[in-house]
Amino acid sequence: MVEVTLWGSLAAAAEGNSKIEIEAKNIRELFERLRERFPQLEPLMDRGIAVAIDGTIYRDTWSKELPPGAEIYLLPRLAGG
Amino acid sequence: MNFDPSHSKRSFSSVGTRPIRPDGVDKVTGRARYGADFNMPGQLVGRILRSPHAHAIIRKIDTSKAARLPGVKAVLTAADLPDLTDGDAAMYDILDNCMARKKALYDGHAVAAVAAIDARTAKQALKLIEVEYELLPHVTDVDQAFAPDAPLVNDTIITTGLDPKPDRPSNVSMRSQFGHGDVDAGMARADFVVERTFKTEQTHQGYIEPHACVANVSSDGTADLWVCTQGHFVYRQHCAQLLGMDASKLRVTSSEIGGGFGGKTHVWAEPVALALSRKAGRPVKLVMSRDEVFRASGPTSATSIDVRIGALKDGTIIAAEATLRYSCGPYAGSWAEIGAMTAFACYKLENVRTVGYEVLVNRPKTAAYRAPSAPMAAFAVESAVDELAKKVGMDPVDFRIRNAAQEGTKASYGPVYGPIGIGPTLEAVKNHPHMKAPLGKNQGRGMACGFWFNFGGQTCTDLNIGMDGTVSLAVGTVDVGGSRASLSLVAAEELGIDYALVRTVIADTSSLGYNDMTDGSRGTFSSSMATISAARNAIKILRERAAQMWDILVEDVTWEKGHAVAKGETHGNLPKLSLKEIAAASGTTGGPIAGHSEIVADGAGVSFATHICDIEVDPETGATKVLRYTVVQDAGKAVHPTYVEGQYQGGAAQGIGWALNEEYIYGKDGRLQNAGFLDYRIPVCSDLPMIDTQILEIPNPNHPYGVRGVGETSIVPPLAAVANAVSNAVGVRMLHIPMSPPRILAALDA
After folding, report:
1. If you count Cβ atoms within 10 Å of the first and of the last residue's Cβ in chain B, which end, N or C, has fewer?
2. pTM for this one?
3. CA separation (Å) from B279 to A78, B124, B126, B328?
């Protein structure tokens, strides 16, 4: 079980929850559980989400493990110039 | 500073040196081939007809006269680009932007295109296309568009990020919010509060090379696209999807690039060129005019930002909030979201809240521009921070040092920071001679901080060792700022050979695995990681070949300074083998030697900078002159310091232009008034002083050499640094950018 913090827009689509306890070993499982639990998140997740684990941002490494007790933060997938 | 010391303690041989760039001679002699320099036998000239109206329903397009004109080989409208996006809203917006379908949404929106045997015929053909418009009310200003009674720009957009979700369309495509703590309680405790509203106008990246491509679709369905772009793999994906092609059948080759800065991360006319070629059965060359670049490729957002910051008497910021409204053109975007994330990222704040609103306007689709969205947010916040420091009675540098984020700080956008460089850049600025230099009459000094995320992404690299011992490195990240030199240095470093023996090329999309585009300051960061990995794979093979040549176990072979060295009591006397010797024998030891790497380069390190600006203002005319400018920025590790300095200087130069003169000016008719470099004023050499730089190196622990991205952060602080300098020079807080002479005079008269 890990605790995940959602940013404002994502929280709005997750029934107002800014923090969620969820059973997930890695980023892939986290995304699957989120989609199951909050179908309204689907469009935002399709647009792209990054995951910060203890401060390091992961955009594409879905196999990245979520260590118990880690600070896990969902962020929008960023654009650059 | 608290960071992993193993990176900074490493001694480098090649990395950190300043060799001549491999593409330099061709570029200064005119031999380098940019987007418009490529031609094919039998190619046609493509041209695009654009809407003269800011907002209009397209009732009818009659292309029959144009199609009958001798020399015209294809005429195209949205009907030739059917919607194949399968419900993908973002792709549909790209399609609609490439060729308007039901409505023209801005002055310059493409409505039809032709391919003809020469430019004159193509131009004539455009004049023969008859478009029947029904004009609609338009809105081009971000604040006016935000108002509830504004004309509706795009009736398919319903605001996201609200709970409950609205059921009617509006000009706000998205609301996003970040922050933590209790801002209202914090603000109630504040001894000093600054509350201001700031505005910035829309700017263009100002790249010198207009968009250009040559498209060639063969009768068997395969196609080639030669194009100036920051991301040829992404262009392939987008063009293939929009045209209903298999991506593997479209080969995209990136030309040299005459500047992009984010503006060449999006497709504009390339799908149209491919569609014209498919219809005409011949290659089509399509080059945008400068007017088209301004009117129909992506500028930045115009913004309107409210900031409120409170501090205690001891100089601690106790609460901060910002409401940011960013224009995004007529399609949904996420620029305000990024502005909301970056606004307070430099500071350690207990109570912080930012709310971003994405606002639709009848202007061209907004595109990325170097740290997209961050400069405007930094302008607002850093201006308010400067004013707050004065209220508290502290030096603006000391005030920022007191409140600077550090390792372990919870960022305003959420996660905790690892090792970061905001504190060190501020300390460097505090001690810099620039801060102590005297100022004269009508002169002011300003400083400001800036932040950018940086990111990595999908990256693929091939490192091939020739039989002569030279190395060819094929990468898929377009070289927009000297990355070929940097990556050659990295390959040389890993292999232990001379830089001159490595040649880095940008491979086309059929020659290498997928690569994300060169944006997010990822080019050197991600491709250097992949190069290191590829080189280490090649070294493994080099050791195996050496072992074979010596007839010993590979475990007894190490790689040192470009040579295989036999280890152990029984092999210690064997003379070492150079890379060149092993390569020369490769034909008989197992064939070519190469190393490959396919990675997701996650773990980019965030980046901070602090800038200082001295400026003189003529109080009679409002004219400004930048007297001195200094950039201090953390590079993590500067692979090629000269190019890092160049990035710092380039970002500062663009930021100065943005701060002082550049802006899109729209008439009441909704049409752009200054679509050219005569009327849209970017800085020239005589407008700028020599920009001094200081590179700091706080290593990114997630990169083998400690590298962070450097390309974008340098444009974040200048708007605020210049605004603070002007405000100090004239004694009036400047709230509106650009600070052109009329605006400065208006501020003085207010």
Report:
1. C
2. 0.96
3. 37, 19, 17, 33
